[in-house]
Design a protein that fits this description.
Elements lengths: L11 H15 L2 H12 L8 E5 L10 E5 L2 E6 L11 H9 L9 E7 L22 E5 H13 L7 H16 L8 E5 L3 H8 L1 E4 L11 E6 L2 E2 L2 E2 L2 E9 L2 H9 L3 H13 L7 E7 L8 E2 L4 E2 L16 E4 L1 H4 L10
Parallel strand pairs: 3-4, 4-5, 6-8
Antiparallel strand pairs: 1-2, 6-15, 7-12, 8-9, 9-14, 10-13, 11-12
Helix pairs in contact: 1-5, 2-4, 4-5, 7-8
């Protein structure tokens, strides 16, 4: 029975892995092999299923043979930098390496969002030298690039189902922030901009999804990305706004959150008893808040030439790009 296409795992790492395996299970094995070879840069050395005619054996020549003898192991990480220092991630690879011993056609693929191969994979200390060449690292970005190249090739006959599955898999990687090193989220801020100026916080619906690894927060307001980009201090995904919750926060040492809840209720901008997500931000004009040279004008157009909002919800970019002198959103 095929594994579910939509993962039942809650953990991001397990969810991404199981979704990847579910897609690979539903497409041609030869395409999976091609994507792995392209993404990892190992060429055509992977062995999977072989089709041979007139196979010469001991005293006989059968007309044909279809054979398969391979094992591909996968270790997936959704956090960057896990192999930069000694710890759990390296030890996992060392333990997995024992599965490779005695079988030259076995591979261990290590898939991470790091922008380049972690230096440790050049050494693989603690791994038997005989199997080091069977451990292959590649990034989600390189796998997504391999998928795009495959799907954009007009000479390839790829089924609509395969196109759909691979496109959705790439979209999952993008949504989970695995394809770039963006560290800044920019939200559509009809009322949030004014609230930030007053409260140094972003208050939204509970359990709103944000990528991991974010450091800064931007506001898209009145057709511009505002020039003030505060640092993210903390994120509480779900809290009921009440005086009791405020008191508990203060008692636990989170005075800023508790005081904010009290102020929001006193000002009447949120109703008591409602659940919200709260992101505490560095204040406007604060030392940790980045001030760009000026706001960034939106110049997004539809295919017909009409102006269109740069974001209606949230988008991601990097602080480095925002600080690079851009003046229009098309430059991001």
């Amino acid at each position: 029975m095929p594994s579910p296409l939509f993962s039942t795992y809650r953990s991001g790492e397990n969810r991404v892995t199981s979704s990847t395996m579910a897609v690979f299970e539903r497409i041609d094995l030869a395409l999976v092999q091609e994507l792995l070879e392209s993404a990892s840069g190992i060429g055509d050395e992977l062995r999977a299923v072989s089709f041979e005619n007139q196979v010469v054996g001991d005293g006989s020549v059968p007309d044909a043979r279809i054979s398969a003898r391979f094992t591909w192991w996968f270790e997936t990480k959704t956090a960057r930098g896990g192999y930069a220092s000694e710890g759990h991630d390296r030890n996992q690879v060392r333990l997995h390496a024992s599965q490779l011993e005695g079988d030259p056609d076995t591979r261990l693929f290590v898939l991470t969002p790091d922008p380049g191969q972690p230096a440790w994979f050049d050494e693989l200390d603690g791994v038997d030298e005989v199997v080091r060449g069977q451990i292959i690292w590649f990034s989600f970005a390189s796998l997504a690039d391999a998928i795009r190249v495959l799907l954009s090739d007009p000479t390839r006959l790829v089924s609509e189902q395969t196109k759909f599955l691979l496109t959705e898999l790439t979209a999952l990687y993008e949504a989970d922030g695995l394809l770039s090193n963006d560290d800044t989220v920019v939200v559509a801020a009809k009322s949030a901009w004014g609230e930030y100026i007053k409260y140094a916080a972003y208050v939204c619906q509970p359990d709103r999804s944000f990528r991991d690894g974010l450091t800064h927060f931007g506001f898209y307001y009145q057709g511009k990305i505002q020039a003030t980009v505060p640092r993210i201090l903390s994120w509480t995904p779900n809290i009921v706004l009440s005086h009791e919750a405020a008191a508990r926060s203060i008692a636990s040492g989170n005075t800023t959150l508790g005081s904010l809840i009290t102020q929001l209720l006193a000002d009447g901008v949120r109703s008591e008893g409602g659940a919200h997500g709260i992101m505490l931000l560095s204040p406007h004009g604060g030392v940790d808040t980045v001030q760009l040279a000026g706001p960034i004008e939106n110049d997004t157009k539809t295919a017909s030439g009409r102006g269109w909002a740069w974001t209606l919800s949230q988008r991601y970019t990097s602080l480095e790009r925002l600080q690079g002198g851009v003046v229009r959103t098309s430059q991001l």
